[in-house]
Write a structure and sequence with these properties.
Shape: flat
Helix content: 55-70%
Strand content: under 5%
Low-confidence stretches: none
Length: about 450
């Protein structure tokens, strides 16, 4: 095994069994296949990880560590991090610390983060704090510093460090000037972390004030102020705030969870009136979930958009409402208006035609499109056949030498009971294609 090869395989999900498919194999009772691939000479990482977790869950921690040992032997941090988590969960925290420490010393950022939290959990918080203190500009390590520092009762020190990062005069990284007017924060999540310190200290009002004082940094479609208000059940304040599209969505999701569908609809409608965000699209999804598909169709149709993701949702709504023919007519109208139909829109015809009982016609028509013979078009057609239960035809369409096709073909073969064939395909190296010829681009002037 080689650490660089393992890194490539796991990052690309290439020459390996992807983690979601490993879980599916276990669900289907194919633990023997997972074990075999975990223990193979050129072992599969995701199988090994799942098998080790299974053994650890049964109390066989040493056996679990033996499964991970060949991967650990490559010096690959990902394997060491997994082994450390199993050791810590199994009550062997000191061994976990010993395992992680050399990686942290070598500058592995994630290892330093994990080591600090391990030390803090095992009574060595001061050492953890000192390890993290030089890294206040790193968002990941700053998160750990907040957790460790507040746990030690040094929240005020951490808050002062973060406030210094937010002070006016920090230079813009683009031009080097502190006066260019561009907001610059390092770490980018300094505001959220400062609010987190105050919240952990039980000073919720101060945490809210921090988040109101700065433009929010939205991460993963979550507005930190909205999250804080939800955690503390301050819904009236959230209604008043709802200033970002993400906050509106969080408010609507909360109201829907509590059974207040009308309130959720109203939240989206008010935001729609301001002409911002994806509220129309989200409102349509909400209405469809609650049996109001006809209203959802009118909202999406009123957008009068040719963006494929919006047209895709509209076509799905037509199909769900038993109005597939209207969906096809909508696509016809778009094509006539624009004078062309890219594959991203043409592919939407297939599910609608299938809903009308015209699947064979859809399959026959697809190759006539200028992009109909492309790999991505064949994959779309294969998925259509899979949904229709015509799995063998789908298998025949997919190219076993293409990574994107293998990602579809592997799970399909498993569901067809051809487990060994699926695993062999996924683990077999693909033919390497030579890099493309240079196109003449140069990064030297004249461009």
């Amino acid at each position: 095994m080689d650490a660089a090869l393992l890194h490539r395989r796991t990052n690309m999900h290439d020459e390996c069994v992807p983690p979601d498919l490993v879980d599916r194999l276990l669900d289907l009772g194919h633990a023997d296949v997972v074990r075999e691939q975990a223990l193979a000479e050129d072992g599969d990482w995701f199988c090994a990880r799942a098998w080790a977790r299974l053994l650890a869950g049964r109390g066989a921690l040493d056996e679990a560590l033996d499964v991970l040992a060949p991967f650990l032997g490559t010096g690959w941090w990902t394997a060491a991090g997994e082994a450390a988590r199993l050791l810590d969960a199994g009550g062997r925290g000191e061994e976990a610390i010993t395992l992680v420490r050399p990686f942290a010393s070598d500058g592995e950022r994630s290892a330093l983060h994990d080591l600090a939290l391990l030390l803090a959990r095992h009574g060595q918080g001061e050492e953890a704090y000192e390890l993290l203190l030089p890294h206040t500009t790193d968002w990941l390590l700053a998160e750990a510093l907040v957790e460790v520092g507040v746990g030690l009762g040094r929240g005020e020190e951490v808050a002062a460090l973060l406030e210094a990062r937010l002070a006016p005069g920090n230079s813009c990284p683009r031009c080097g000037s502190p006066e260019c007017g561009q907001p610059y924060r390092e770490p980018f999540n300094a505001v959220s972390l400062l609010a987190s310190v105050r919240e952990k200290q039980g000073r919720t009002d101060e945490a809210i004030a921090v988040l109101r004082s700065y433009e929010p940094t939205v991460v993963n479609n979550r507005d930190p102020l909205a999250d804080l208000l939800v955690r503390h059940d301050r819904i009236d304040e959230l209604r008043t705030y709802a200033g970002t599209p993400e906050a509106v969505r969080q408010l609507a999701e909360l109201l829907e969870e509590r059974g207040d569908v009308a309130g959720a609809v109203d939240a989206y409608r008010r935001h729609m009136d301001e002409g911002r965000g994806h509220s129309p699209f989200l409102l349509a999804e909400l209405l469809a979930r609650h049996g109001r598909g006809a209203e959802a169709i009118e909202i999406v149709r009123a957008l009068d958009s040719a963006d494929d993701w919006i047209v895709d949702q509209l076509c799905k709504l037509f199909a769900a409402e038993g109005r597939a023919e209207e969906g096809l007519a909508h696509l016809d109208a778009l094509k006539a208006r624009r004078g062309r139909e890219e594959w991203e829109l043409s592919r939407l015809r297939g599910p609608l035609m299938a809903a009308c009982g015209r699947l064979d016609e859809a399959v026959a028509q697809a190759p006539a499109h200028p992009e109909g013979g492309s790999p991505y078009a064949r994959e779309d057609l294969a998925r259509l056949l899979i949904d229709a239960g015509r799995r063998e035809e789908a298998v025949a369409l997919l190219d076993t030498d293409r990574l994107d096709h293998r990602r579809t073909l592997g799970p399909l073969l498993v569901e067809m009971g051809r487990v060994e064939e699926a695993v062999t395909l996924l683990r077999t190296p693909r033919p390497q294609t030579p890099p493309p010829e240079p196109t003449g681009y140069s990064d030297c002037p004249p461009f």
